[in-house]
Amino acid sequence: MSLTAAPSTHTIREGAFGNGTHLSCRACGAKSELGPFYACMECFGPLEVGYEFPAITREQIEAGPKNIWRYQPLLPVPTDVASFPNTEPGYTRLIDAGNLARELGLRKLWVKDDSGNPTHSFKDRVVASALSATRELGMKVFACPSTGNLANAVAAAAARAGIRSVVFIPKDLERPKIITTAVYGGTLVAVDGNYDDVNKLASEIAGEEDGWAFVNVNVRPYYSEGSKTLAFEIAEQLGWRLPEQIVIPVASGSQLTKIDKGFTELGKLGLVDATEYKVYGAQATGCSPVAQAFRDGHDVVQPVKPDTIAKSLAIGNPADGPYVLDVARRTGGVIADVSDEEVIEGIQLLARTEGIFTETAGGVTVATLKKLIETGQLDPEAETVIINSGDGLKTLDAVADRVGPKVTIPASYDAFVKAGLQ
């Protein structure tokens, strides 16, 4: 399979990737030029973007737009990125979750609520970054394998940008996620298999078809950088400081590793004090290969066959799994998992205490937070942030048989009184 992914006739313009200067292998450290490359030519390891940042001030960032492009100097995107049609994601709420904190016995808890993005998940961030790379590389088809949220984001972003989209999903995906992808008018392909089967097919197509940008495959180095904006926003919304602890859902693991990268970059640039923080990862027990490796003290993540209601986290062979282990161990965090029953309870707990209806991935995160407190693995006195990565309207089936009317009464005041509702 080819390790490049763009027509060879396309000329990349100067400044196409902002302050990005090279691609670096995360496995062996070998460097290569910026371009349509996603695997190391030396060891076939994954590539990520390296930078040479100029002096950047808080004031410069704060003067930017109320979306992720306020962090343009810290991303692999050109200075004029905001002038191209895009969904303008980001700058979502950081909610002071005092009710949930009191219930769990935490001193201070914040929820970074990314359900407020254009397609109601954090995937709009990474897709916006990938769309910029797709445009700069001259690619003509915007595509992805997806467990749902990414499908929504790619289809919407492509419609906004006027580019063709082709999205591949497991055929048993939640119905709301299928509908909220198909509505944008792109090509939606259901595949007979789980996400790992879909991802394998996407990788094969990416290696054979010129001009196809699979956002989380062959433009992954640029796509994944979008997750750093979660770290940037959290720090800025906390008054330009880092939290002491953060709990992050783990699917491929890219979100967790890039939030860590974002915190690190802010410290190096002097935009925040480089204080210590712990990173915790959350998985569903039915698809918890990273949590299992962490418990067993392994550096290698063994693939599993997913079996969980948390389909957006159901990646049995997570690409960033080993790097998630590295981050958790380096920062003193933990990777833990919770049952599907605990996931449902987590969804209801967040809704009941904070008025936030999260999807199953958020239920995993809340339930993992609760478990980490109960097992003494997370400090209840330390300021903590959790990530709500998506909207509960996408996974209604998870709680459909748990909630509903308390009582049905005739339309009369007597019936109201008789039901004891005063």
From TrEMBL:
<dbReference type="GO" id="GO:0009088">
    <property type="term" value="P:threonine biosynthetic process"/>
</dbReference>
<dbReference type="GO" id="GO:0004794">
    <property type="term" value="F:threonine deaminase activity"/>
</dbReference>
<feature type="domain" description="Tryptophan synthase beta chain-like PALP">
    <location>
        <begin position="89"/>
        <end position="390"/>
    </location>
</feature>
<dbReference type="GO" id="GO:0009097">
    <property type="term" value="P:isoleucine biosynthetic process"/>
</dbReference>
<keyword id="KW-0456">Lyase</keyword>
<dbReference type="GO" id="GO:0003941">
    <property type="term" value="F:L-serine ammonia-lyase activity"/>
</dbReference>
<dbReference type="GO" id="GO:0006567">
    <property type="term" value="P:L-threonine catabolic process"/>
</dbReference>
<dbReference type="GO" id="GO:0004795">
    <property type="term" value="F:threonine synthase activity"/>
</dbReference>
<dbReference type="InterPro" id="IPR004450">
    <property type="entry name" value="Thr_synthase-like"/>
</dbReference>
<keyword id="KW-0663">Pyridoxal phosphate</keyword>
<comment type="similarity">
    <text>Belongs to the threonine synthase family.</text>
</comment>
<dbReference type="GO" id="GO:0006565">
    <property type="term" value="P:L-serine catabolic process"/>
</dbReference>
<protein>
    <recommendedName>
        <fullName>Threonine synthase</fullName>
        <ecNumber>4.2.3.1</ecNumber>
    </recommendedName>
</protein>
<dbReference type="InterPro" id="IPR036052">
    <property type="entry name" value="TrpB-like_PALP_sf"/>
</dbReference>
<dbReference type="InterPro" id="IPR050147">
    <property type="entry name" value="Ser/Thr_Dehydratase"/>
</dbReference>
<dbReference type="Pfam" id="PF00291">
    <property type="entry name" value="PALP"/>
</dbReference>
<dbReference type="InterPro" id="IPR001926">
    <property type="entry name" value="TrpB-like_PALP"/>
</dbReference>
<feature type="modified residue" description="N6-(pyridoxal phosphate)lysine">
    <location>
        <position position="123"/>
    </location>
</feature>
